[in-house]
Amino acid sequence: MAATTIGTAIEWYDFFLYAAVAGLVFNKVMFGDLDPGLATIVSFLSVGLSFLFRPLGAVLAGHFSDVLGRRVVLMVTLLAMGGATTLIGLVPTYETIGIAAPLLLILFRIIQGISAGGEWGSAVLLAVEHAPVEKRGLFGAGPQAGAPAGLLLSSGMLALMSMIAPGDAFIEWGWRIPFLLSIGLMILGFWIRSGVDESPVFTEMAQIAEQKRANPLGELLRNYFPVVFVGALVFAGNGVVGYMIAGGYVQSWAVNDLGMDRGAVLWAVTGAAVTWLISGVLAGGISDRIGRRNTYLVGFLIQAVAAAALFPLVQNGLLWPAMLLLGVGLGVTYGQQAALYAELFPASVRGSGASITYALGSILGGAFAPTIAAAVVQATGSTVGVTAYLLVATFIGLLAAASLRDRTGIPLGPEHEAEQAERHFTLSR
């Protein structure tokens, strides 16, 4: 649990770091002489572009996770993510190398997207498949906590650099330091993960001769696509709201549109990451007691309140209450995600199922949420439309969660495939 949590936190530190800097720096130095509003939209498009490559990472990682094991995939994705992040810190500005600057950013962002698409599924399955039956939600909340932990690390590091290199110094060189530090985090994560045993469920599957000839992706798409789609909508309901801060939009809007201090905003987002992390771990543990489905229903109601209050609170100077409340809403709709996905799919396709469902949910929910928000505000001059967008996404996530039958505690081993393959929806017999 510790190894998957720490490794996932390092991966999300890399991923979220780019999103935050996109709205604070890249829109100023990497995309030429575009109008500031347009430059911000284009910069967030480069953030969203990586999500389109998550399915590729999910397909590759899901397949090899089901065939070669969860642990091997996690080692490869960590190296890819850390290497791309370090190289982003070395990319010259548009003024220095012209169009090559945004092209290099996009290339490295694509590598990050492929890595993120492959990381999550293997990490959560390694944690959940090692867990005692009655603690799957809690163990699965470990790698889930990696996302807010990564946001905490990235926002905290940028806030620190805004103090060390204030004003123009942050734009000129300060933003690069957190990217370059990624190489040390990558080495640490690789060392930690190299000592983790393979999932016991995969070890059982590897002893089955037929597993070597399996086509997990083909079986998943033939027999479980409705489950994949509905499961993706659950995560999308969380992702649209989460990527207001994880995707860097609120930071950019508060600093560039409202004129707030950059450091103050980054520290408030760091606070949101703390409440997201704590509430996510609690939600995972609570889901072991009241079920994944019930925890989601409560969580989406809390998230709806947080989404409705987000922009009005920030506009009235209540930045910290807005961020802390949002973190709670995100945590209670995220902490149990790992256990939910592990219990949705049979053992033989679980790696592909979890990875592809998560990647599809990321595209539907997080990919272009910051871009859409920036475009809505530029077109209307108001955040009302963005709030409506967040509430619709939350309601869709609520309906998707309500349609799934609660499968908390279902056996995960390959000898229970028949039980795992049936009764996914509340209306099914």
Automatic annotation (TrEMBL):
Pfam families, alphabetized: MFS_1
Keywords assigned: Cell membrane, Membrane, Transmembrane, Transmembrane helix, Transport
Parts of the chain that traverse the membrane: 12-31, 37-60, 72-91, 149-167, 173-192, 223-245, 265-284, 296-314, 320-344, 356-377, 383-404
Location within or outside the cell: Cell membrane
GO MF terms, alphabetically ordered: transmembrane transporter activity
The organism's place on the tree of life at top rank: Bacteria
PROSITE patterns in the record: MFS, SUGAR_TRANSPORT_1, SUGAR_TRANSPORT_2
Signal peptide (residue range): none
Primary location: membrane
Membrane topology category: Multi-pass membrane protein
Keyword Transmembrane: yes
Keyword Metal-binding part of the UniProt annotation: no
Database matches in CDD domains: MFS_ShiA_like
Matching Gene3D superfamilies: MFS general substrate transporter like domains
One cellular component (GO) term of this entry: plasma membrane
Domain Major facilitator superfamily (MFS) profile as annotated: residue spans: 1-409
Descriptive protein name: Sugar phosphate permease
